[in-house]
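Now produce a polypeptide, keeping tokens residue-aligned:
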Amino acid sequence: MDIINRIKPLVEELAFKKLENDEPLYTSNLIDSMGTVDLAMMLEEEFNIKIDTRDIIVSNFDSIEKLANYIKSRIE
């Protein structure tokens, strides 16, 4: 299973809706600060990585595509 297909259900669970891979998450207020914490914890568990709080920024977390790119950079 590719990274996007592993991330997408986690994000959609927090956003309470189906999402496009390039749909903004934070700048459109689909996920709030508490959702961000939950998402980071879910991603850490799913991919067995540690996410530094300094990495939780719009350029890494504002869409499923951006999350996938961030995760790829952490596991490669």
